[in-house]
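A protein record in our archive is deliberately plain, so that people and models can read it alike. The record that follows is passed on verbatim for readers who wish to inspect the format.
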Amino acid sequence: MSKVDAKTKSAGIKFDDIKAQLMEDAAFEAEYNNLQPRYELISQIIEARKGMKMTQEELAKRAGTRKSNISRLESGSYNPSLDFLIKIAKGLGKDVHIEIR
């Protein structure tokens, strides 16, 4: 097998297959649904930052915070305040819009 073939060959189980299996558990599904808005927001922040070719450190400077706070936010291990999210959005040149559905 060539190096190219080895790199393109996927190993193991697909995430979607694992997720589908786990979603059969009602408690897991409820917790997943509770956390989904948080992870959607985190994904938007990471996507915006990377789209601007900006490092976590640069975003931290623009937002007036420390890189470790950006890292914790992006890893999902930090529950940010609305004020902090507004600072991050401004550091990205964006605004925060909240919608209750």
Remarks:
- Residues 26-51 form the longest helix (26 residues).
- The chain is about 65% helix and 0% strand.
